[in-house]
TrEMBL record, chain A:
Organism placement in taxonomy: Bacteria, Pseudomonadati, Pseudomonadota, Betaproteobacteria, Nitrosomonadales
Stretches that traverse the bilayer: none
Protein name in the entry: Methionine biosynthesis protein MetW
InterPro entries (alphabetical): Methionine_synth_MetW, SAM-dependent_MTases_sf
Gene symbol of the encoding locus: metW
Organism superkingdom: Bacteria
Pfam families: MetW
Gene3D superfamilies: Vaccinia Virus protein VP39
Length: 201, 391
């Protein structure tokens, strides 16, 4: 799905992901959108990879960007991919729109030696303020109204930490950013985008 | 988007091959002709050639018309031409009629040079592998060492895949559309019914009907009617005909009453008047026999280990004869070998026939993918291939 973030933050997001990659690594980008992340990783790190995308227009855009894209619905799982066949499997800002959230994370950890999951932090203070004011949060990170949002499984950083513990997932690294800047203090309150590098325990 | 037009008036050519061709069956074809057409211009580097492999009833006349008054253009005209997805301003496109065909290449209805009579039943059973070997010779004949791409739908897609297996150094891209790595039992079963319709026609004469001055029209007609049912989806037939009656009322008889019957009979009659029954038998057998994974215990990934080409695989959601699941098998085997592949599953109502239709999204995919062929990156890949350096 397309990123709701502005370009400055987008690049920060990419830069952190690139920092977690090895040169020439093999990567699978789930919900790759127009393939710009893969294109960036290929240009910067000569990463080899494939994108997975459901949407027709995005598939076409990714193909136009010279990215290998496989059209399929992530909800059906990753049965077309062998176990441990990728160095890294990325799910960039798509987790919150998945119905089978547990399933896709487990599939990512089957197919990849490591996984990178990024999601908008629902615990971000601006979101909390909107809820206190009595309305569902609408922001740059969550640009939808409650009735038209594709986001069915929003979570906070605290929620995802707990999810990892309960599912025997090891968090190798976690980065939290707001407006492209790293957040070190009170991340669940001050962070708008959470980025996790994880693997099986 | 630039203006798109037809390639205009075209003419077929014939290439004669006097070097014998060893066939998969063990038989040898001592000499043969291949009829072909080309569109666009071969560039100085001879690097822009694209071969179109035809399906069961196809042939070399892929695009353009033979005269201004020609009623119908070639069978994939909507794809090929200046500004079209396969742009003849950029590519040199080759269409040919496969061996065993009935549109000018050596086949059962052509004269056997050894006897001076039509080959008939004596024409060998040819396979996808044999076709690709003969196509490679046609490429040699045209002075082309490496094809920019091989494109095929259905049985044509099998040939595109076979090219990458048999000649990994000679093809940079394979576009495998509405195809499969082999046929399922159900799919082969349709072929068997079609063949039985032909073979049991009293005018088949064991395949040597030419001498009798007849053709097994009835069998061929039924074979085609059956085929047409499987090329369309239930929804497409429903939308096109539904339960519509031709004359608005039921007549309690067995002549044409429903529109669907009228359509099938028309298609069957038209086909029986222009296609050769012996060719139909051979085309369906080529479909049945294609199974590159067989020598590898059914492991398609192992079969594709030596492949180097980049792939675009396309399927159509309502195609039940060559279902998306079968295309995904090809994709998986390519992924297992870390080959370059993109896969599009096009939402289309027309069943297997969708691969010949100008659906805007489908054509946008082909246009976009073909836009990457002959790009700078593709050129780099070519120079690596040319110098024989492993990538």
């Amino acid at each position: 799905m397309t990123s709701p973030l502005n370009s400055a933050e987008f690049r920060q997001d990419f830069a952190i992901i690139a920092g977690w990659m090895t040169f020439g690594g093999k990567v699978l980008d789930l919900g790759c959108g127009d393939g710009s992340l893969l294109q960036f990783l290929r240009q910067s790190l000569e990463v080899r990879g494939y994108g997975v995308e459901k949407d027709d227009a995005n598939c076409l855009a990714a193909m136009g960007n010279g990215v290998n894209v496989i059209q399929m619905d992530l909800e059906a799982g990753l049965s077309g991919f062998e176990a441990r066949s990728f160095d890294v499997v990325i799910l960039s800002q798509t987790l919150q729109a998945m119905r089978n959230t547990e399933g896709i994370v487990q599939e990512m950890l089957r197919v990849g030696r490591e996984a990178i999951v990024t999601f908008p932090n629902f615990g971000y203070w601006r979101h909390r303020m909107q809820l206190i004011a009595g309305q569902m949060p609408v922001s740059e990170e969550l640009p939808y109204q409650w009735y038209d949002t594709p986001n069915v499984h929003l979570c906070t950083i605290k929620d995802f930490d707990e999810f990892c513990v309960n599912h025997h997932i090891q968090v190798l690294e976690r980065r939290v950013i707001t407006n492209g800047e790293a957040v070190h203090r009170l991340p669940n309150l001050l962070g708008s985008l959470a980025m996790y590098r994880i693997r099986r325990d | 988007m630039s203006e798109s037009t037809s390639v205009g008036i075209v003419a077929p050519k014939i290439a004669h091959f006097s070097e014998p061709l060893a066939l998969k069956s063990g038989e040898i074809l001592p000499q043969y002709d291949l009829v072909y057409e080309t569109y666009g211009t071969l560039n100085a580097e001879r690097s822009n050639a694209v071969m179109i492999c035809h399906a069961l009833s196809g042939h070399h006349h892929v695009a353009g018309k033979y005269s201004e008054d020609d009623k119908y253009p070639g069978w994939w005209d909507n794809l090929i031409g200046p500004g079209r997805p396969l742009d003849t301003n950029k590519f040199f496109v080759i269409g040919l009629n496969n061996l065993g065909g009935c549109h000018g290449s050596s086949g059962p209805a052509t004269l056997n040079p050894a006897t001076g009579k039509p080959w008939g039943a004596a024409f060998p059973v040819v396979t996808v592998e044999d076709w690709v070997n003969s196509q490679a010779r046609l490429a040699d004949y045209l002075g082309i060492t490496q094809l920019a791409a091989v494109i095929g739908g259905s049985l044509g897609g099998m040939q595109a895949l076979q090219w990458t297996l048999a000649y990994p150094e000679r093809v940079r891209h394979a576009l495998v559309i509405a195809s499969a790595p082999n046929l399922t039992a159900q799919n082969m079963a349709f072929n068997e019914v079609a063949r039985q319709a032909i073979i049991t026609d009293p005018e088949f004469y064991g395949g040597d009907y030419y001498a009798q001055g007849v053709v097994p029209r009835r069998g061929l007609r039924i074979a085609r009617m059956l085929g047409h049912i499987t090329y369309l989806s239930d929804d497409a037939m429903g939308a096109k005909f539904g339960r519509k009656l031709r004359d608005g009322k039921i007549k309690y008889g067995f002549d044409v009453e429903f529109e669907m019957e009228s359509y099938l009979r028309y298609q069957g009659d038209k086909f029986a008047g222009e296609f050769d029954a012996n060719t139909y038998l051979r085309m369906t057998r080529a479909l049945d026999y294609f199974d590159p994974a067989l020598p590898f215990g059914g492991d398609l990934s192992a079969a594709l280990a030596g492949v180097k080409a980049k792939f675009l695989v396309v399927s159509f959601t309502s195609d039940w004869r060559f279902s998306p699941a079968r295309s995904r098998e090809i994709v998986k085997a390519l992924l297992d070998n870390e080959l370059s592949v993109s896969y599009a599953e096009v939402t289309a109502a027309h069943g297997h026939d969708a691969f010949l239709m100008p659906d805007p999204h489908y054509h946008a995919i082909l246009r976009t993918y073909l836009g990457t062929v002959l790009s700078a990156a593709d050129d780099a890949a070519r120079s690596v291939a040319d110098t024989g350096v492993a990538s």
